[in-house]
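note to self — DONT lose this again. spent like an hour looking for the file last time. sequence + predicted structure for the chain T wanted, 354 res
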Amino acid sequence: MKYRFLIYINHDYAIPIGKPLQEEILKRGYEVKWFSGLEKPKKLFPENGDLINRIEDAISYDPHIVLTATDTVPDFLPGLKVQVFHGFPANKRKGTDQFTIRGFFDLYCTQGPSSTGPFKVQQQKYKSFEVIETGWSKMDPLFPLKPTKNDKPVILISSTFTRYYSLALIDEVVSEIERLSKTGKYKFLATLHPKLDDSVKQKFRELENENFEFHDTTNLIPLFKQADIMFSDTTSAIIEFLLQRKPVVTFNNNMPGHYLIDIGQVSEIEPAFDRALESPGELIQEIDKFAKFSHPYEDGNSSKRVIDNTIRFLHEDKSHLENKPLNLIRKYKIRKQLGYWTLKTYDEAWSLRK
């Protein structure tokens, strides 16, 4: 059977999540198209895939499976609704917001024990979906891991857009990075969350010199591979980087663990870099434990597991699952966002007979 997949996104940072899935789908000879609920990512197509522009055409495409890298998905789209996530839990809210069940999905393909456990608990409560641990498609290109070899230590700077936590918005931190780049002691690669203001990105562009490069990209894995350590704040990119078993220095991280070198003063930045570059044995052990808890898969085959499990689940009997919640406010918001008003909704988990 030639399955039809739809990759549903809202932001350009979801493209590196969808690309490995698209590659796996096409490898099998199936059909895959993309849809973005917001306008900005649309300019990045067709170079990244076959984009459907209108929601009416996405409905007419009649997908068997909708792979979603957003918190919600139109309930009126046909197909099995699958959550593949747009990031790791980054503890920005000191709560369980990232595990909120919004009532749109039939299947959650979780990244590892850190996300599987909480969603399994929610599954017992709501009984309208299944949870399968597959690993995260975005991480496939990271593996297999290879040693990083640099003549000069390379530090990757990554910052969240959240105002309370973003190191890119702290002038004293930025000034210290600029000073260190001019010493020639380190080489810096910097990338910022795409939701940060253009003025912040411009400030980082102005820092460029022979030891400082700014990369305006959402494809972070090539930068991960180049860097020896990361300097960050509170962002899910930290977890992605740690999967390489490389140290991360954080500035005022929201919930620091033993797997991080967390600091709170500008004067601590350079000593923390030097300590991280030594890769202390105890720190690496903590990183390894955390990496296995977050994403234990190092085979680069998470996309394969996602596609295998979604196709299998598509054909399974789902009569044991309850209907999705009514969710009227969220359904209204999706219709308003897309400018598409319909009473059509699919409350039961989507199934297809073989």
